[in-house]
Amino acid sequence: MRHPRNHVWKAAAATAAGGTALAALRTARGHPVRSVSTLVSAGAGMAAGGLMAYEWLTPRSWLYGPVFWHARTGERVVALTFDDGPCHPYTGQLLEILDREGIRATFFQVGNNVIREPNLAAEVASRHEVGNHTFTHPHLTWSRPGTVREEMLRGQEAIHEATGSLPRLFRVPHGWYGPQVISVAEELGMRCVGWSVMAWDWDRPPKDVIQRRILHGVGPGGVTLLHDGQDTDAFPKADRSHTVAAVSDIISSLKANGYGFLTLPELMELDAREHPPG
Prior knowledge:
Blueprint: H1 5-28, H2 36-57, E1 67-68, E2 77-85, H3 90-101, E3 106-109, H4 111-116, H5 118-127, E4 129-132, H6 145-163, E5 169-170, H7 179-187, E6 191-193, E7 197-198, H8 207-217, E8 222-227, H9 241-256, E9 260-261, H10 264-274
Parallel strand pairs: 1-6, 2-3, 2-8, 2-9, 3-4, 5-6, 7-8
Helix pairs in contact: 1-2, 3-9, 5-6, 6-7, 8-9
């Protein structure tokens, strides 16, 4: 079943094209470029086009369909999420920290990495929630639906073969959702996920910077984004030592401020309970 917002983006596309075309037509027929009608038409077209572009490139997209990026709650809970794994030794080090702290997190795994390290992928899935992060970690922003489907399906197959579980969640690499990405994910039975705060840790900033960025941006119902791998790279090219070093302090600070920790499905359930549909 298609989400009703799929009709909204088509209306926005029609407005963008129609407004721009009408402004061009009025100008071609000799109407002043600065006339009110021409400016209104051009403005409507540009505004609709800008909205479409923004929603295409944001991890909090809503125009093309639902993307879960936080729970609407005042309860002090947060979901820790990690992308690009599994990747030895960092994924294993994170598992040790999370086990010690009694926390379950959500890991978005890359199919290519799962094939390389199936036992580590299975270890993650035995204790935590696992989501699909495609097979090769490509930019899907401008990809055809067939390419999007292949990346998702290959990711699903790799994760299922290694872990025995089939992911219900999908996070697009680089956070850029378009209508074809959301619609294909829905057809394959997965919910699309973004985030509310990230640390830009793929650039390997120092531990204290990672910690500060997360703690500064987190709030009740938040979804944090960190990385336990790097695209499809393996150690030593993939270096997530700074991220691992920051996680313990992030958890300690959040606990000291009264936060609890949920997996993404648990956070979604909380949001649904507090804001039931209809």
